[in-house]
Prior knowledge:
Blueprint: H1 9-27, E1 42-51, E2 62-71, E3 77-85, E4 88-89, E5 93-96, E6 98-100, E7 108-111, E8 119-125, E9 130-137, E10 149-154
Antiparallel strand pairs: 1-2, 1-10, 2-3, 3-4, 3-5, 6-7, 7-8, 8-9, 9-10
Amino acid sequence: MGPGQRVGMKGFSLIVVLIGAVFRWGNAFAVTMPTNVCPTNFTCAFDAAEVRPLSDATPGAPGVFVGYLSFNGSGAPTLDSLGILNGNVQTLLTAVGTCTAGTTSALGILDFTGNGGPKFLFVSDNSGAELRVMLVADAGPVTPSAVNLGTCTQQ
């Protein structure tokens, strides 16, 4: 459009719709998350997979993990996990940890780093019958160099 040209009704309507869509889309980020409680008397079987990043000592190496995650009557979690990293079977890890419930602005936390295990963020799914976990610290606690996501389905 050059100087002195007018916007027709169709053009004006399109601009208003686009502005409304941008504001509506921006409001999607203002939605709060549901809270995630620490499960009690709950056991789930989990699986997770990863691919090591290009900056790693073994770039592109696969990793898979399976095991059980159980919570006692107080909500304290125990992790029993076995993994294969780049074709090498890892030793069985059994670690007792702590669970911090999620809030409307933060995910729940499962922390096993005090006993040589990992640290996960979690959300509950499927009416509480599943946990979705994301690795945020390896044993140590050291920030992991690979993204590791897992699903834990109630048994």
